[in-house]
Amino acid sequence: MKSIILFLLLLFPFTVIDAQLNIQASKQLLQRILPGKSDRFVIESLATGNRDSFEIETSHQNIVLRGNNGVAVASALYYYLNEFCHCQITWNGTNHSLPNTLPLPDKKIAKASPYAYRYYMNYCTFNYSMSWWDWPRWEKEIDWMALHGINMPLAITGEEDTWYQVYRDMGFTDDELQQFFCGPSYFSWFWMGNLDAYGGPLPRHWMESHAALQKKILERERALGMKPVLPAFTGHVPPSFHKRFPAAKLKATNWTNGFADTYILDSEDPLFAEIGKRFLQKQTRIYGTDHLYSADTFNENEPPSDEPAYLSRLSARVYQGMKEADTSAIWVMQGWLFYSDRKFWKAPQIEALLKAVPDKKMLILDLAAEIEPVWKRTQSFYGKPWIWNMLNNFGGNTNLFGRMEEAAKGPAEAWNDPAKNQMKGIGLTMEAIEQNPVLYELMMDNTWRTKPISLDTWLPEYIRNRYQQQDPHAIKAWEILRRTVYNGKLIRDGAESILQARPTLDSMTRWTKTQLNYPPADLIPAWDELIKASDACQQADGFRFDLVDLTRQVLANYALPLQQKWVKAFQQKNRFEMEKYSREFLALIDDMDDLLATRKDFLLGRWIADARKCGVSENEKALYERNAKDLITLWGDENCPLHEYACRQWNGLLKDFYKPRWVQFFTQADQSIANNSILDVPGFQKTIAAWEWKWVNERKDYRVQTTGDPVLMSKKLYAKYRMKIMQAYGKN
Q1: Residues 6+ positions from 347 with CB-CB distance below 8 Å
Q2: Chain centroid to CA 398: how far?
Q3: Contact between 500 and 646 (Cβ < 8 Å)
Q4: What whole-number distance in Å separates Cα of residue 317 and Cα of residue 303?
Q5: How far apart, in whole angstroms, are the C-alpha atoms of residue 50 and residue 48?
Q6: Over the chain, what is the mean pLDDT?
Q7: 39 close to 237: Cβ distance less than 8 angstroms
Q8: What is the mean predicted confidence (pLDDT) over 201-223?
Q9: Distance CA 555, CA 571 (A)
Q10: Contacts 24+ apart (CB under 8 A), 359-362
Q11: pLDDT band for position 595 (50/70/90)?
Q12: 1 pLDDT band (50/70/90 cuts)?
């Protein structure tokens, strides 16, 4: 019976069987979230109109959770946990401390979301965070999505297997396809047509295992009432395509980041619609469909023509390829290109691209609306339905940063703006997750409201749920964090630390951007207050993460004045001062590495171990380890200009990668002074790039378990550095 229901769900995702599946899936989620307590809850279906809704009330000493689907029921559960039990579930800290006697609501609570869609994920998230996820980790994330109201997740796991089958059906050999499919760390950019083959060859076992994983992901998401967005064809074809189809109209394009050309099939070629149709038909047979398809034309690649007529024809053909396979198809487009390449995408070009597709058949993601709301300069995407998204994180970089005020008010202000036209939802489109949890809790709290969130009341409640109490020192710390790291001023995204840069005499590099959105001394009082709160709050998991994260940020900022003192000593040829500041700089790296070892959130070893677990042979394990290390360091090969774009402040990475680079740089600089010669910076850059490439390719295990107490370690470093740091900033 179960197999028949699942089969029907794949073919007809929104039928009368939904209610039964949603209730069953909701009960299972409840058991995972609250083992041993789930029998105190009753789950019921709620008949509503088109709006997702939930209700909470007391009945016979039980808590009744009603929702029109599994996401609504999960949202009701999370609302109850937040408001009545003061609990919290985030990537970085969970408070499950339920009272022995569960509170009973004294009146019915009813919520309805104004937003038809609550979107989740960016293509990049699948690699900067999710490259090595297995089913248990995905299961946990899908639960998180449901609790936070997500009903429209991007679902592109296993896409490579579908393409493998399509191209094999078209006569391509495995040897030809090895020059097409990239390694697992790079799928996001392969899917968007930016690169081919890099990091491969991709083992067939990976494709098969991740196709199976995708089936589990989709089954669970749909059982909870989500509408997953699956991929569609945008023209990216294998390099050998011209050999198989000599008459095909191909365009070579280049991402300009050190990778070889990729090939795009011209939308005017009859094969374009044919391949698009084949892909969706194959995908639907394997995974079913919810009629939402992601397709991004010219992601960070400029089209061959800016003629509106050309762009209009291209857009129409992309949609036509979808329509021929699925007459109910809706094209979901990331609006990133309108932000990232605004010199090309002016009003006539954007309007031409969008208006070629019927309004009801396209949905635009305003991908970074908290940074720059593109909807405001495009007449709300010229009438297309669209979604307001917060991006916040780029590259998975480790930093405290965000636009808290914008996350609190931006969605509601857009919703209440008469110019919003067809705003249909809100969403999260970060390039990576598992950082800055406050921003994502705040953003998704907009799901069930149409008025701006008051941070004056919201933030103390967030602290209470996270720390199990409203400690006055913790509240003071967060008011400072709100004004500093989370003020959203001056810079696009969070700053990195100079210690992560490929060693330099400068104060920043292209991808190691050290400019802060606050004076660094202004962050120290927040550190003071969180240290003072530690006696009262130290048992809370969220507090322990936050204290480490804030200590990490303060120390990461301090690396810059230390490095600049060393640079000044070098310029003055003062070897004594050079030795002093280089020693302090390297000790700082060691101390940060030890601090980060206290939290699983910051362990390089887990990232690498998870990658190796995906392999079934030693060759596969080595391939995945190389992919894992490469992405977060060089990004590409030793000459890749993207090095440090995805840099992380992780235990193991600081001491084994960043520190040895600086040791070599300091040594070479000292020798240049001793020999009265010019420091050969270009020569060093070349030498260190070769060293980095060797590190990427080495086999090495790193710590996978934490060591040390996060609170004690933070206090130790506070005692060691607090006065030094204030003196470095010219403060007493």
Answers
A1: 377, 378
A2: 12
A3: no
A4: 15
A5: 7
A6: 95
A7: no
A8: 98
A9: 25
A10: 359/383, 359/384, 359/385, 359/422, 360/330, 360/385, 361/319, 361/323, 361/329, 361/330, 361/331, 362/319, 362/330, 362/331, 362/332, 362/333
A11: very high
A12: very low
Cβ-Cβ contacts under 8 Å for 301 (sequence gap 6 or more): 193, 194, 253, 254, 255
Which of 25, 333, 70 is closest to 226 using CA atoms? 70
Q: Which of 7-16, 150-159, 393-402, 705-714 has the lowest mean pLDDT?
A: 7-16
Phi, psi of 453, rounded to the nearest 5 degrees? -85, 130
Query: Is 50 exceeded by the pLDDT of residue 621?
Result: yes
Q: Which amino acid would we find at residue 672?
A: S
What are the extents of the domains in the chain?
Answer: 2-112, 133-375+382-389, 474-728
C-alpha torsion angle, residues 486, 706, 720, 572 (rounded to 10): -80
d(CA 697, CA 685): 19
- Please identify which residue in the block is written with the tokens 């990461």: 556
pLDDT above 80 for 9: no
pLDDT at 135 over 60: yes
Question: Cβ-count burial of 677 within 10 angstroms (0-12 exposed, 13-18 middle, 19+ buried)?
Answer: exposed
pLDDT of residue 433: 98
Angle, helix 710-728 to helix 524-537, in steps of 10 degrees? 160
Q: Could you tell me how many helices (H) and strands (E) the chain has, helices first?
A: 28, 17
Checking if the pLDDT of 18 tops 90, the result is no
pLDDT over 70 at 269, yes or no: yes
Q: What are phi and psi of 83, to 5 degrees?
A: -80, -35
pLDDT for the residue numbered 33: 96
CATH superfamily placement of domain 133-375+382-389: Glycosidases (3.20.20.80)
Q: CB under 8 Å to 472, separation ≥6 — which residues?
A: none
Largest CA distance in the chain: 86
Judge whether 412 and 566 are in contact, CB under 8 Å: no
Go through 176-187 and write b for each residue having 16 or more CB atoms within 10 A of its CB, e for each that does not: bbeebbbbbbbb
Pairing of strands 93-95, 88-90: antiparallel
Contact present, 636 and 198 (Cβ < 8 Å): yes
Q: State the Cα–Cα distance between residues 242 and 5, nearest whole angstrom.
A: 44
- Region 539-551: mean pLDDT is 98
Of 191, 212, 346, give the one whose Cα is nearest residue 262: 191
Q: State the average pLDDT over residues 378-403.
A: 97
What superfamily would CATH give domain 474-728? N-acetyl-b-d-glucoasminidase (1.20.120.670)
Report, as an integer, the average pLDDT of 286-298.
93
Rounded CA separation 593/654 (Å): 6
512 CB burial (10 A radius; 0-12, 13-18, 19+): buried
**Are 368 and 429 a contacting pair, CB within 8 Å?**
yes
Facing residues of 66 across strands? 44, 55
Dihedral angle sign, alpha carbons of residues 252, 255, 256, 259: negative
CATH class of domain segment(s) 2-112:
alpha beta
Q: Is 639 left (phi over 0), alpha (psi -120 to 50) or beta?
A: alpha
- Note every long-range contact of 456-459, with CB atoms under 8 Å and residues 24 or more positions apart, other chains counting: 458/408
Residue type, 203: P
Strand-strand pairing, 152-153 and 117-120: parallel
Cα–Cα distances (Å) from 93 to 230, 298, 344, 527, in that order, read: 31, 38, 43, 19
